[in-house]
Design a protein that fits this description.
The chain is mainly alpha-helical. It has three domains: 95 residues, Fumarase/aspartase (N-terminal domain) (Fumarase C, Chain B, domain 1, Orthogonal Bundle), CATH 1.10.275.10; 238 residues, Fumarase/aspartase (Central domain) (Fumarase C, Chain A, domain 2, Up-down Bundle); 98 residues, Ribonucleotide Reductase Protein R1, domain 1 (Orthogonal Bundle). Helix content is 59%, strand content 5%. It is built from 18 helices and six strands. The strands form three sheets. The protein has a two-stranded antiparallel ribbon with strand order 1-2. Helix 4 packs across helix 5. It starts with 15 loop residues before the first helix and ends with a helix. The mean pLDDT is 96. It binds arginine. The site of arginine has 10 residues, from helix 6.
Length: 462
């Protein structure tokens, strides 16, 4: 077994069980690239701080680049007895370039190193997540545009309420995803602060130009308190928390897709390529992709609980508990990215059955509210109008008839304020196009909303 980089004061070797228990290389190997990029920039800062000579720098950078190349080609020989990615890379470097490699860690601790690695990694992944959300928004907007005439029942309590454009319902999800995108963009801003130069907890003895170092690592600012810098994992919580909300939105959408794909609704047919069958029942076609997206919200919520609990009650500054941040984070990143991207594929290939939607919107007295408003316009107080239309609905129910088939004479038996123009308002189309206020479901407003959403995708910084 190799000597530990921290082995100086130890008389006994670490037990095998403790070694296995404390290692993180099995999962933090993901940080290899950011760790090496960080080390190259750090070595350059050590040159400016006069810790390294030009020649030493060259050797170290050459060694680090070679390690990165071999790691990217899958040849890196990482060892669990070296605990984590940081000590593995450092050891590989010393093996490659000799004693000069031992100078790299001057003034740096794994505490500011891991915090910096992780922030670099989260920044990159946040950008990727935002790109996937934007792609999903584009797919939804396309679906809305291609089905701009489709009318469906809008629901409250999962009971038919008022007719809406299918596009309007889709745009509700665009709004949610837009907020998700903003949350990730805000999280990015907070992540974009460099801890390097904080040392173990109190700062560093060497003359590091932290601002220049931050610039070369693509950070827009540096952290301002070394103790906070090494013990802060808010940026991990921010990412997972934004992910939890995103998953909650995807899960709600998935739930609707699952309903719409049932025979009872029949609003949507999922492509065979995104459905699976039953091993027993030959006729089955199941919406497993949507169900798994709904199901995977559970693990992301779990990850959020895990990291909040890991951080709670830790005294300042670094504690090994924090190593538990990584698996929750990595699992969240993988889950959220895969869900956003497969959800877009599933929607893109789905078939919309606008006839079934329209049929559903024609049943269930969805124009009742519009009928009440008709009376309001004839100066009937709203509460009275509500009561009158309630009675009409009850009459329709008894005679098994839809509102739009009521003749003027029949309507007049409930109120003398009805006149010839009333039938015009009883269709789903009329109901929809009377919702003309900003944010409403009239075709004009929905088309405007699509244009706005497109402009937002083009112009936002996120
Ligand atoms: N593997 C550790 C982690 O992920 C790196 C930092 C360890 N620092 C320490 N002083 N033990 O948190």
């Amino acid at each position: 077994m190799a000597k530990k980089p921290w082995g100086g004061r130890f008389r006994l070797p670490l037990s095998k069980s403790a070694e296995k228990f404390t290692q993180s290389i099995s999962y933090d190997r993901r940080l290899c690239k950011v760790d090496i990029v960080q080390s190259i920039a750090y070595a350059e800062a050590l040159l400016k701080a006069k810790v390294l000579s030009q020649q030493e720098l060259k050797k170290i950078v050459g060694g680090l680049e070679a390690i990165l190349r071999s790691a990217e080609a899958g040849h890196a020989d990482f060892r669990a007895d070296l605990e984590d990615i940081h000590m593995n890379v450092e050891t590989l470097l010393i093996e490659r370039v000799g004693d000069v490699g031992k100078k790299l860690h001057t003034g740096r601790s794994r505490n500011d190193q891991v915090a910096t690695d992780l922030r670099m990694y989260v920044k990159w992944e946040t950008t990727e997540t935002i790109i996937l959300i934007k792609h999903l928004i584009e797919v939804i907007l396309e679906l809305a545009e291609n089905n701009i005439k489709a009318i469906m029942p809008g629901y409250t309590h999962l009971q038919k309420a008022q007719p809406v454009l299918f596009a309007h319902q889709l745009l509700a999800y665009v709004e949610m995803l837009k907020r998700d995108k903003e949350r990730f963009a805000q999280a990015y801003e907070r992540t974009d602060s460099m801890p390097l130069g904080s040392g173990s907890l109190s700062g560093t003895n060497f003359d590091l130009d932290r601002t220049a170092l931050a610039k070369s690592l693509g950070f827009s600012k540096v952290t301002s308190n070394s103790m906070d810098a090494v013990s802060d994992r808010d940026f991990v919580i921010d990412y997972i928390s934004a992910s939890a909300q995103l998953m909650m939105h995807l899960s709600r959408f998935a739930e609707e897709v699952i309903l719409w794909a049932t025979d009872e609704f029949g609003f949507m047919e999922l492509s065979d390529a995104y459905s699976t069958g039953s091993s027993l029942m030959p006729q089955k076609k199941n919406p497993d992709v949507a169900e798994l997206v709904r199901g995977k919200s559970g693990r992301v919520y779990g990850n959020l609980m895990a990291i909040l609990t890991v951080m709670k009650a830790q005294p300042l500054t670094y504690n090994r508990d924090m190593q538990e941040d990584k698996e929750a984070l990595f699992d969240t990143i993988d889950t959220v990215k895969e869900c956003a991207s497969i959800f877009a594929e599933m929607l893109k290939t789905a078939k919309i059955n606008s006839e079934a939607m329209r049929k559903a919107a024609g049943k269930g007295y969805l124009a009742a509210t519009d009928l009440a408003y008709y009376l309001v316009r004839q100066n009937v107080p709203f509460r009275d109008a509500h009561e009158i239309v309630g009675k009409i609905v009850s009459y329709c129910e008894e005679s098994n008839m839809e509102l739009e088939y009521m003749s003027l004479n029949q309507l007049k038996q409930f109120s003398d304020r009805f006149s010839y123009d009333v039938q015009r308002i009883l269709t789903a189309e009329a109901s929809i196009n009377s919702k003309t206020t900003f944010g409403g479901t009239s075709t004009k407003r929905v088309k405007e909303a699509i244009t706005r959403a497109r402009a937002n995708l083009l112009h936002d910084k996120a």
